[in-house]
Amino acid sequence: MLYSEINPGLAAHGGEIKLVELTEEQYAILAFGGGCQGCAAVDLTLKDGVEKTLMERIPELAGIRDVTDHTDTTNAYYR
């Protein structure tokens, strides 16, 4: 779902998201890259876009955690 539905939308801003791990507690550990890493709008993207979509489509998922270092704004779409 990340790669077929969510990443194409993020690609419009040069961004991407990767699944790092799925924990035993059913949390998806995600890392943003490209234009999403360090982007000023990443919290909105994570909560209102990625998390909402994944939680609706995968009922077993307990939540989302972002492990991205957002202090690196080199390629950020919005600064």
Automatic annotation (TrEMBL):
NIF system FeS cluster assembly NifU C-terminal domain: residues covered: 2-62
InterPro entries, per the entry: FSCA_dom_sf, NIF_FeS_clus_asmbl_NifU_C
PANTHER family: FE_S BIOGENESIS PROTEIN NFUA, IRON-SULFUR CLUSTER SCAFFOLD PROTEIN NFU-RELATED
The protein's name: NIF system FeS cluster assembly NifU C-terminal domain-containing protein
Protein source organism: Vreelandella olivaria
